[in-house]
Amino acid sequence: MLARQTQSRTLHWLGRQLFNRDDPAAFFDPLLERINPMWVQAYTPARVEQVIEETADTRTLVLRPSRRWSGFKAGQHVNICVDVGGVRRNRTFSLSSSPILWREQGRVTLTIKRLPGGRVTNWIHDELQAGMVIGVGEAFGNFLVPEPAQPVLFIAGGSGITPVLSQLETMAATDYRAPVTLLYFVRTEADVIAREKLQALAARYSALTVTIITTHEGASPRYLCAADFDRIPGIRARQVYLCGPKGLMDLARDLLHQRDIDDTDIHSTFFSVPQADLGKEALGGQVRFAESGIDVGSEGDANLLDIAEAAGLTPQHGCRMGICHQCSCRKTSGTVVNRLTGQASGPGEETIQICISVPRGPVAIDL
Ligand SMILES: Cc1cc2nc3c(=O)[nH]c(=O)nc-3n(C[C@H](O)[C@H](O)[C@H](O)COP(=O)(O)OP(=O)(O)OC[C@H]3O[C@@H](n4cnc5c(N)ncnc54)[C@H](O)[C@@H]3O)c2cc1C
Ligand code: FES
After folding, report:
1. Over residues 65-75, mean pLDDT
2. What's the CA dihedral at 261, 265, 270, 273 to 10 degrees?
3. Does residue 292 lie within any of the structural domains?
4. Best residue among 84, 93, 140, 327 to mutate for probing ligand 1, ranked by most atoms within 8 Å of CB
5. Which of 3, 67, 285, 289 could make a disulfide contact with 294, Cβ separation 3.0–4.6 Å?
């Protein structure tokens, strides 16, 4: 750890001395990458050891990050960095394996669904092969189960099973001593991710009950309902973890509130930006990127990260969903609306996450 910090500080210092820039990795990485991709600084290189097809649109990557990576807790996610058509792109994915696999074998897995029209997920499905190297950022997120053990209910939908797989593997391996229930919603039987793993977990970990519910096999859709909760013993005492499409998460939250389970006992992680009501006032406006000396106009609900990229800037970013804070920048003036909450900022100076900030009138940013 100390060696890594020293190496990183030295590069940072060198970068500032030689090139007067704050991001030496951006200068050195292309050079280092040519010599050995495992030396790059901005992210931890991870070799793809294996690709496992889970369903028609979901595959699991077995990765071996270099040992300088700091590891993770079950339920956390990482930003990955890949080169798609000569452009480096970052995206966020949950780790689907247990931290125990990392500690014992130096491996982690990501389980990735193809998003129609998505640039990175389609590249991962169509181009990525075993033997290639991708970048992995440090893990983050607080979708973590309580310690010491408490009764837990997981409600997952589709690819939202990924952080839950990591948690269940870890709970089984550490003999988490409390009732654990998983309700896993998928459209059809063919969409079940890691069915055999789930069955094996339920067989060897007696605290765990797994119910897989298909929503679109019958004549009419079968969604989460109050009766599903009637079958869960002691539901009022459970810590509830939600991960899945917004519709499922909203429905689950309503049904839990009806049972007097309040938000302090409900934990969720979302895979896409929830669209808050951004109000009635007209959005968009003139944006000044002060450090770059660029002025551009914006219209509608475009966020500042997209606006900056369209203007040819390359701001630091990770998830593009308001989670990782890597895109945080100083706004020096103007009002922005937060895409997650619908709240408008004050007009003055403050730090904002540009990926979820939509200008409302003229805005100036330190970029
Ligand atoms: C904390 C977190 C954990 C995640 N974990 C996983 C995981 O374990 N497995 C997994 O498969 N995915 C996961 N995701 C979702 C994943 O990050 C996105 O699917 C991915 O970023 C899409 O990248 P792309 O380049 O293919 O799509 P883009 O080219 O970025 O997007 C194409 C279009 O789809 C829209 N879009 C982007 N993401 C989504 C989405 N999730 N749902 C619907 N529309 C979207 C965009 O607004 C855009 O219009 C996670 C997301 C977050 C925030
Ligand atoms: S890019 Fe992650 S919060 Fe903005």
Report:
1. 95
2. 70
3. yes
4. 93
5. 289
